[in-house]
Amino acid sequence: AQRVTQPEKLLSVFKGAPVELKCNYSYSGSPELFWYVQYSRQRLQLLLRHISRESIKGFTADLNKGETSFHLKKPFAQEEDSAMYYCALSYRGSTLGRLYFGRGTQLTVWP
Amino acid sequence: GAVVSQHPSRVICKSGTSVKIECRSLDFQATTMFWYRQFPKQSLMLMATSNEGSKATYEQGVEKDKFLINHASLTLSTLTVTSAHPEDSSFYICSARDPWATNTEAFFGQGTRLTVV
C-alpha cells in the first residue's frame, strides 16, 4: 500500500539557515511525488512536483528511488517560508487527482 | 491556474442540524472531486471521492449517511453534514484536477471551517 511519512511535525530554523523537510514514501511502482504548502489562512497550493525538476521560491526536491525519499530543501530560509508543508504521492492508475498526504511539517523561520 | 472555490468559508450551526458545503470548479470540468477533513496542525484525511453522475466512494470509517455527497454536475460537488454534532467541527477541504490538463496538479478549495455548537 502507498504511504507517505514526514517524520518531523515541527521544524524551526533561523533566517538564512539551510532547511530540509524530510519525506519518505512507500509504493512498489512508479509514484509521482509532490510538495504542497499551506500558508497561514490560505488554501493548499502546489509548491513542487518531482517530474518538473524545477526550483520554486528557492526550494528544490529530488526523488531518490533508492532511499524512497523526496526531501524538500532550501539553502537559505526566509521568514516568509514559514508555513505548513505537505508531501504527497500519486501514481498512474489511481483515481485522477487522488493524493496520499503525509502528516505535514510546520516550518517556522525565525528572524 | 485552475480554480476551485468552496462556499461557505465559515459556518456555525446548532447541534442536530444539517450543513451543506459547496465545491465548484470555476474554469474546468471535474468528473471527480475529493473531500478532505483537516484537524488543526494535522494532515488532510481523505473522506470520500465524489464522482459526477454516480455514487461517491467513501474511505473506510467515514459514515456515508452522515456525510452525504452529491456531484450532480461537472462543476459542482456538495458535501452535506447531516445531524451535525460538535465532534464534526473541523476544516473541510475539497480538491479537483482538470482531466484535460497536461500537468498533474490538484487544485484545492479555500476550505470551510465548520463549528457545531
Low-confidence residue ranges of chain B: none
SS field, number of helical segments of chain B:
0
Would you report the number of β strands of chain B? 11
Largest sheet of chain A: 6 strands, mixed
> Strand-residue fraction of chain A?
35-45%
How much of the residues of chain B is beta strand, in percent? over 45%
Total number of strands of chain A: 11
Please name the two chains that share the biggest interface, counting residues whose Cβ lies under 8 Å from a Cβ on the partner chain: A-B, 24 and 24 residues
Report the end-to-end length of chain A measured between terminal Cα atoms: 41 Å
**Helix-strand category of chain B:** mainly beta
**Mind describing the biggest β-sheet of chain B?**
7 strands, mixed
- Which bin fits the share of residues in helices of chain B? under 10%
Bulk shape of chain B = globular
Helix and strand string of chain A, N-terminal first?
EEEEEEEEEEE
User: Which spans of chain A of ≥5 residues are poorly predicted at pLDDT below 50?
Assistant: none
Helix content of chain A: under 10%
C-alpha-based Rg of chain A, rounded: 13 Å
